[in-house]
Write a structure and sequence with these properties.
Blueprint lengths: L4 H9 L4 H7 L5 E2 L2 E2 L8 H8 L2 E7 L3 E6 H7 L2 H4 L21 H19 L5 H13 L9 H9 L6 H17 L4 H11 L1 E3 L2 E2 H10 L29 H14 L7 H6 L2 E5 L3 E7 L3 H19 L2 H23 L8 H9 L4 H6 L2 H10 L3 H11 L5 E10 L5 H24 L3 E9 L12 E3 L5 E3 L10 H6 L4 E9 L9 H20 L4 E3 L2
Parallel strand pairs: 8-11
Antiparallel strand pairs: 1-2, 3-4, 5-6, 7-8, 9-13, 9-14, 10-13, 11-12
Protein name: HD domain-containing protein
GO biological process, one term: dGTP catabolic process
Organism: Macrostomum lignano
């Protein structure tokens, strides 16, 4: 009992019993990538995952000490990942909340940490390679964001370009894997071997990571085995929206914005389980006593959307940037053949803004510099307004709300109102040059549906039940008390005047009065009512 471990191992080293060796082998640690003792010599990819020993620790303001594993370190050191340091998570929100300057880089690290926490209580029987793939997916799920994060996606869509950051994240991750495969050091070869191995027939770890980022196999939901469906709910949960992405950005954004946040993600993850549910599916299931905390998360998310992400002033700044990009594209199209025009601006803003090359080159600062220096006087003027915090003027708002999905007639009326207002907003923006109407939605992350309809919970004795919302006699009481309007649609009217003093104050005042009256009349025909913001 007093012998050191190495001496004790020597006593049984020559024993013929394989059981003795197998008993000692788990006690021996891996050092510098080598198995010092033991009789098993695994393949490189298996050896790298036997311990999955963290190699680096990072101090994070949200999660404290984060342990970064060797595969994550390989990915983080690639330039495709380092560009996330130059992408603001909250776009132009820092013009309203000065402290909202965090980047996609620290959010990605936080998602990796949340994936490691969620792995422990949920799927102890899962193989370590699958847990490793899930952590890699959490780390890489936002690689496809462009300048100013989600704002870039909406800017491209306003220009008629179909862009989805999840699909682009997969492309960037694949480029990182190819980049690492070209290296000859031991860790890179172990990573490449791990990516090429199959966790299921004809389904490699690389494909698994890509599918986890998408939230399911690309375009083929039938490929998800029912007993493995929970795997695709950790990083990008298409069923409920409850995933590590939301658990990290809610806490991180509240901290940087200075908003209250009462949600305890650590406790939620510790009580999360993978259990059989109807349809022979294995899903992520909440503890029944934690459903109230889950509802608090949904409420906090909607409040952060209203107070920060879709703040009335934040949207005003976004419309200035959107007009600057539109003006830049018009200028570049008109002067395409001019030899003095910046060719990078033509390539990245006009010809191929959705390409992988454009994404990897563009950052927040590079986009701003292109719009200021290389895209004409109109774009430069609008970018100067952003620098001076001169936003478009908010004139009026109207809204309509859906309070319950139990009434089919009310739900149908609400959907008809949404279709009518979309047509009205499109017509307004096409026929007006001095004002712009902007449609925004505030919900619980699942559209005009009750947020608990797709959520399952388990009791202390292990019984699984559905947390039904409207129309269920056994629905949870506190859900009805706290979840008021399920879906709110707001239309805001802005004047395209970025703080310039009016030449004729009386005429401008009369214009605003007529514009607001006309706006409210047209929106009232769609069932919308005036609201104060």
């Amino acid at each position: 009992a007093h012998l050191p471990l190495r001496g004790f191992y020597c006593l049984v080293k020559n024993a013929t019993s394989a059981a003795a060796c197998l008993f000692i082998n788990p006690l021996l640690r891996r050092r510098k990538g080598q198995i010092l003792f033991g009789c098993h010599h695994p393949e490189p990819a298996e050896r790298a995952l036997m311990e999955f020993r963290p190699l680096k620790t990072i101090n994070d303001p949200v999660h404290g000490t984060i342990q970064v594993h060797s595969f994550a370190e390989l990915i983080m050191d690639r330039p495709q990942f380092q560009r996330l340091r130059h992408l603001k998570q909250l776009a132009l929100t820092d013009l309203v909340y000065p402290s909202a300057t965090k980047t996609r880089f620290e959010h990605s690290l936080g998602c990796d940490q949340r994936c490691s926490c969620s792995s422990r209580p949920c799927d102890k029987k899962q193989l370590r390679p699958i847990r490793a793939a899930r952590r890699i997916a959490g780390l890489c799920h936002d690689l496809g964001h462009g300048p100013f994060s989600h704002l870039w996606e909406s800017l491209l869509k306003s220009c008629g370009i179909d862009y989805h950051h999840e699909a682009m994240s997969v492309q960037v991750f694949q480029s990182i894997v190819t980049d690492i495969a070209s290296r000859q050091d031991q860790e890179s070869m172990e990573f490449s071997a791990f990516m090429d191995r199959c966790w299921r027939p004809n389904w490699t770890h690389k494909q698994l990571v890509c599918d986890l980022i998408r939230g399911g196999p690309g375009g083929d939901s039938e490929r998800i085995p029912p007993e493995k469906q929970f795997l695709f709910e950790f990083v990008n949960n298409k069923r409920t929206g409850y995933d590590v992405d939301k658990l990290d950005y809610m806490n991180r954004d509240a901290l940087s914005l200075g908003l209250p946040n009462r949600f305890d993600a650590t406790r939620q993850l510790s009580l999360l389980r993978v259990l059989p549910c109807p349809g022979n599916r294995k899903l992520l299931v909440l503890r029944d006593k934690q459903v109230l905390d889950y509802i608090n998360l949904l409420i906090s998310r909607r409040m952060q959307h209203y107070l920060a992400y879709q703040h009335v002033k934040s949207v005003a700044f976004e419309k200035v940037l959107q007009d600057a990009l539109s003006a830049a594209r018009r200028h570049l199209q008109a002067h395409r053949d001019d030899p003095d025009v910046n060719r990078l601006a033509i390539r990245y803003l006009l010809d191929e803004p959705e390409s992988l090359e454009s994404l990897l080159w563009l950052t927040d600062d590079r986009l701003v510099e292109l719009l200021k220096q290389s895209c004409g006087s109109e774009a430069a003027r609008l970018m100067k307004h952003l620098e001076e915090r001169r936003k478009y003027r908010h004139l009026a708002s109207v809204r309509v709300a859906l309070h319950s999905t139990a009434d089919d007639e009310a739900t149908a009326v609400y959907k008809n109102q949404l279709e009518a207002v979309k047509i009205a907003v499109t017509h307004w923006n096409a026929s007006r040059s001095r004002s712009i109407a902007e449609l925004r939605k505030f919900d619980y992350g699942c559209g005009p549906q009750h947020p608990l309809d797709s959520v399952f919970c388990y009791s202390k004795n292990g019984e699984v039940r559905q947390c039904n919302g409207d129309g269920d006699s056994e629905s949870l009481l506190f859900a009805d008390l706290q979840l008021a309007a399920l879906h709110i649609t707001v239309v805001r009217l802005y004047e395209r005047t970025a703080g310039e003093p009016p030449a004729d104050a009386a005429a401008v005042k009369e214009f605003r009065r007529r514009e607001v009256a006309d706006f409210r009349e047209k929106m009232s025909a769609c069932g919308f009512k005036p609201t104060a913001e």
